[in-house]
Amino acid sequence: MKTEKNSDSKNSSTTPPEKEPVVFNPAHIYYSTEGGCYYIDTGVIFRSYSRKPPVIAGITRFLKASGVYSDDIKPLLDEHIDTIEIDRAVDWQGKLAGAKRGIKEYRGRRFLITEGPNVPVSKPGQFPYISSIIRQAFPDEDSRLAFCAWLRDGVRAINTGIHQPAPMVVLAGKRKSGKSLLAFITTQLFGGRSSNPMTAWSGSLPWNDNLLAAELLLIDDAAASTDPRARKAFGSRFKESIYAANVEINTRRQTSISMRPVWRVMVCCNETPENLSVIPPLEDGIEDKIMLLKVSTVTPPMPACTPEERDDFAAALTAELPAFMHFLENLKLPEHLIDSRSGVIALKDPELLDAVTDISPEKRLENLLHLSITQDFMGLDVGESRWMTAVEVQGKLQDRDTPTSYQASSLLKFDANAGRYLASLVKSDSPFVTASKITNGIRRYQITRPAE
After folding, report:
1. pTM of the predicted model, to two decimals?
2. CA 435, CA 366: separation in Å to the nearest integer?
3. Does residue 67 sit within a domain?
């Protein structure tokens, strides 16, 4: 008997307490005209119901709990359903980066934001772990200030719900240098939501609505392509998404719409030339929209080897976010780091900039020209120049009898590449491509063998 009693006691102690019946306040219910669903405010999110009976049951419970007599419930139910489907109808529903939960009026349409970002609330205090990570990652003060200002302005945009165009931040460093830690801090600071845009931006999918729910568009080098055309397309999609007034959103189950999410873009990659070659080419129109920051190796201020230790570390960093938020709100930038449009300039680490420049297709073409000229395959004497079309230059470099043939064929396999790269070399004051002009409607480039 004693054992049986203990068993009963044990069973009763593990039985969860009964929950209060769920009731639906009709004043907190909305109706999707396109999806035919009801959306109930739970206090945290809006939960969807595609069937009417559960909604009627929830409203009935609410009316009974409010003291309504049974005979009066049926007419009140009909009235509430009509009010919901007519007066609280919405044109679109879902998550929207930078928008708080609730109703949002936009260009004459009514949107229901079903869930908002969970941005930390600013509070004075200390943040030793986050401070240690950022100081180790960015020993250079300008880099540290630029990164913090980018975070500051991103949080401000999310809290106000007003998108601010901002540079793409590229964090490049050695493997396991701490880039993921910085990405984690950024994600939590921006409300806890991130998404990788590369599948949508590459055109692999017909929709891009998965990006709507993320304030941080986070890319790692494993998800990007080193193909020059893909990199240029990456740059174009980035500009369209961040610097345009509105973004066209193609959805799986709803009509496509144009809206303005609050987005920021971060790329985390290793600092090797191969990994750096995933970012868009630094050419006119985008060069001033990419921030290149070198990440020095970070020693975690807490143990983070086991899953339990990593969870504890993440919790400790999350606990410091309110104090870090307060610091960011009061951050002042020196004049040389301020940009009138983006808030902070697109700062570039000199070593990373040199590495990116060296692997650019323009630099590769310049190296091929140098090799061809110095080995007399261009037929130029020292100090001599010749006006040539892009086709003529390409033909010389791809000639089978030259040492540049294989590399040039790969680099210039698309018709427009040679002209585009030659034009870039003129703008960058290349010693081998010194000028350009149009004669009889055809552009020619001055190919020069510099004086030794």
Report:
1. 0.81
2. 14
3. yes
